[in-house]
Every structure is written in C-alpha cells, then in structure tokens.
Model the fold of this input.
Amino acid sequence: MPPALTRFAWATALATLGLIALGGLVTSHGVGMAVPDWPTTYGYNMFLFPISQWVGGVFYEHTHRLYASLVGLLTLILAVWLQWRSPSRTLSRWGWVALGLVVLQGVLGGLRVNLMMDSLGIGHAALAQAFLVLLVLLAVATTQRWQRWCESGPSVDPAVGRWVLGTTLLIFVQLVLGASMRHQHAGLAIPDFPLAYGGIWPPTDAAFLDRINALRSDVRDFHPITAAHVHLHMAHRLLGIVLVGLVAMAAMKLRRGFRGSNGLRGLAYLWKGLIAVQVLLGASTVWFNKAADVATAHVVVGAACLAVGAIGSALCVVAARRGTLADGRKVGSPVLSRAGARSDAAVPSAG
Amino acid sequence: MTHTLKVLAGALIVASVATAQAGDITGKVTLKGTPPAEKALPLDPACGKLWPNEKPKTRFFVTGADNGLAEVLVYLKGGDLKPDAAAKPALLDQKGCEYVPHILGLQTGQKLIVRNSDPVLHNVHGTPKINKEFNLAQMAGGKDIERTFESSEVFVRMKCDVHVWMFSYVGVLPHSYHAVTDKDGNFKISGVPAGKYTLVAAHRKSHGSEEKALTQEITVGDAAVSANFTVEVAAAQ
Done:
C-alpha cells in the first residue's frame, strides 16, 4: 500500500473528526436551522453564497456545509485511490461504502433542514460517528503495521476482544444518548454536577418542572424541560460512570492481553486518558452552562474515544481469530505473498 | 418625577375604566414575587451596531407601574364568538435584531405579515405544535413574508436561528376578542357580545400554554366588566 495513500486516509479521518467538531458547534450554538434551505443557501448556490452574509448562526451552519463538501470530496478521492491501489478488493469496497455513507450523511443533514425534524438530527449525529469509525478503520487497514499485525501479530484470548468491542459499542450508545440530549434543544435539563438539583436523583413531578421552567432565563429561551429530558440526562450520566469503569477494565485487558506490544499499551493508555478528559469535559459542560466550545469538545473527545475503541476492537478481533484457529493458520497470511493479487486479508474486521 | 409618572399612570387607568362601556372588558395583570433578573442579549457585531446605547435584554417578565405585568395575552373562551372577517393583517417586525412585538394576538386565518426592517438577514422560523412549522429566509430589505395559522394555538413560537436570542410568541385564537397587556399591565377588550365567558390571561414565561393560564368566569351585560389577574413568580429553591 503506498505510504501516500495511508497518509491520505488518515488525513480524511482527521478531517472527519474536524467535521464532527463543526457539526457539534452548530448544535451547541443552536443554529442548525439558521440556513433554512438546502442544498441552496438563502437561495444561492452554496459555494457562491457571499461571505458578507455569513453572520450569526449562518456562519456555523454554512461553514459546516462547505467543510462537509470537502470531506465528501476527500472520501471520493480515497475510494478511487483504494480501488486503484489497494491489494484488497474488500478494502476497496469499504472505500465505496464510505463514499455512500458520506453522501447519505449529507442528504440526512439536508433533510433535517428541509423537513425540520429534530429526530433526523440525532440520526445525522449518530451516522457521523459511524462514518468516523469506518474512516479510521480504513486508515488503519492501509498501514504497514496492520499488514504485519494480520500476518504475524500476536494472538489473544477472545474474551479481551469481547470486552473491548462491547465497551466500544456502549460508547456508541452513549454518543447517541448525548446526541439525543443535544437535539432536544432544551438546554441543560440538570444544571448541577455531580449532584442533580441538589440530590442524587432529581424530582420530575409537574410542580417541580413548572417551577424550574419558570425560573430559567437563558437568552436562548430553550424548550421547557420535561421529565423525559431529566431521565435522558441522568441515563447519560449513569452510562458515563459505567463507561469509565468499562474502559479502565477493557484497557487493562488490552495491556495484559498484548504484553509484548508497545503500540497496544499506548492505545490502552490513550483510551483511558481520553475517557478521563471526557468525564472532565462532561462535568464542565454542566458547570459552564453548556458553553458551546466546551460542549463541542465533549462531542469531539467522545468521538475520539469511539475511534480508539474501534481500533482496539479491530486489532483484538484479528488477534482473537488467530488465537482460536485450530490449525495454526495465520489470519490474512496469503495477502501480500502474491504481489499485486487481491485478497480479503487486509480488511478491518470490525468495520 | 417618579411620583408624577405614577399619578399620571393612575389617572390613565381611571380614565380608561371611566371610558369603558358595555361590551368592554378592562383590567390589569399584576406580578407578585421577584422574577429572575433579565439578561442582556448577546448581540453579534452586526446587530450590536443597531444598539449604540443601551443594549436590549430578555423579556421574560416585563413590569411597569405598580408591578403591572406587560405582554400578557388576555382573551375570551366560550360563548359564541365569531371571527372578525374584516380583521386587518397583523405585523411582526424584525427591528434591531428583535421581534417586535414580543407577544402578539392573532385570529385564525388572519394574515400575519413578517417584515425585516434590519440591515441583516434573518430566518423566520415558526415552531408551532398544532399548526404547521415553517422556516423561511428573509434577506435584508427582502419581501414581507405572509403566513396564516389555521388552528388555535397559544403560543406559537417565532424564532430566528441566525440570532439565537430573537423570539416572538403569537397567540392564535379563533376570534378577535383578545388583547396584550401594555407596559403597565393594563388591557382592554372591546365590543364583546353579551354572554358568559371564561377570561384567560396567559403569560408566556409563567404559563407557557393555555392549559396553565389564569382564568376567570365573567358575564358581559349592559355594563363594562372589570377583571384583574395576579401572576405569581415561582419561588426559587
């Protein structure tokens, strides 16, 4: 695999993380509907919309759209490049799947605007995370290290893979919960942390909700808080606590499962570090009254936690398969032995 | 000076009641309690230029003389109230990156004209729960937008997503017997046919919707009717 392709794949994945950041800023600022038309922008071809009109919320939403177009272009180039130079047919196919996903993602974002449906915004946010995972795994699969891992990497107990993959899937669920909170446009359903309205579990009776809604005076005049908002918020907090434990456990199993691998040890430490930062950002989101930059950082680090978990999962799945093959055959061993021949070995298994 | 203003305001109320006649309903909405302090709107540079002096604030609880509560929608329910076929279009203007007025009463089918008097673009985003949502672009100096609402709904929120502090709330009613309290909390509904009605006072922040609004049963006959309301601010805990 050409090193330039690997670098390009990583650049596309990184650009996607940037796109998630921009999308996060749009929602954090509450300006997802600031451009009321799509694919046009205030009636203009979006690429010709005058910069002088990029004011207020339009700035964030329009920038998000333009940047998304760039990521779409990068994904197209990546798909073509993989088709051209990848020795794995399956890898090339995943490149086209990525292109399909980014197109679907764009259409979903457009429909969210045109149909004015908040629920589509949640799907848009969730698909963004899935798309990032795919691009990260594509990038990983183009590396020499991945090839070596597939050919002659260590084996591992499948239980380690289950821990890592299960934790990663729960992180995705957590990100969807977070997106659901953000797209309710109700602001902070619980304004204090670590307590909730001064207690362990907040009341949600009608009288209590009426009182807190009457006293909220944010300039953005959020939707009134409902019991469902409070429960959703608490579910996000509780799952966050569970995930701290799960990531710590899964990272420890990663380290112990791959004792000889410095890379895996680094990945495990990175994962734990990210989850620690994520907890701090989650708390700060509450403490700073959902300040847009803090809330967006929370989204971005959440995406990074997911991506790291996905990489760990992919490595574990390959290693676990190797560990369970009775005949000792190495997973993916035929791949690079036939120069230029295509095979399915260099595939991100958890992709 | 303040004392003089109070006297003048009192005189105006007295004059208002004194000039009320059969079919008129007059009264005052008063605020009890201490609401949260209003916050300065976080105007962006383009909008900030439109307010060279004092910056605007939120309008959750706007009070005047003697704690009179402004911007309360007062209207009738019940009876056999017919829509006013000759109702003129109502204007909702965007001035200084604010919707003016903040609270507006409207009749079903009555035309609502939304104007952009600002030198910046806005999007006009109506987010009703019963009527149909809409989100329309309106460039600086752009054409007026015209909308009607087919169903009664208190309140329909109008917002601008370009400027996230911009809101207006439209009370859509099946007739024209409604009023919005003035800066001192006074209201007057005129020409009401004789009969028994429920008089409703809905404050957007305190009540949000019709279900939680204050009500009084009234009978309109040969004489003017007076009715007062008190809106209580929830106690902070």
